[in-house]
# Entry
Amino acid sequence: MKKIYKIILLSLILILIFTVTAFAQDTIKVYVDNEIVDFDVPPFIEQGRTLIPLRGVFEKLGAKVDWNKNLLEVVIKDENNEIEMILGKNKVMVNGIIKDIDVPTRMINSRTFAPLRFVAENLGHTVRWDQATNSVYITKNKTFPAEKGISVVGTRENLIALLEYNSKLYN
# Structure
């Protein structure tokens, strides 16, 4: 009987050890200019994209993050760029031009999460993923004023996407 208890106890200990190790490997670290960013709600990976709570990282990059609860829209601005993202949508407005994202923004624990690489690169910064350490490195770049203007329609699909995006903003 004692032998059975020892085997069960040893099995439980091994399960706990491997569970903690697996959890530790899933933790994503984010660095801005080699300085680690702390999160109250951790980043995660979905469909191969790292999603992060917006404020901590992008304010550290010099951007202002505003939330419009009526439109369910987050606006990220720096000196030269403006990104408008509507919660749950795959269409994003970057400096007046509609772009697609693979994974839409979402709200988790009262935090807005968005794809890190998409936002950082559209603000003009460099992003590097280190698979070995599960880490993202963002390097601030000196940005130059982006060309802003009227969205180019070009095709029927672009016109429909622009109208849908604008109807979300103004309805």
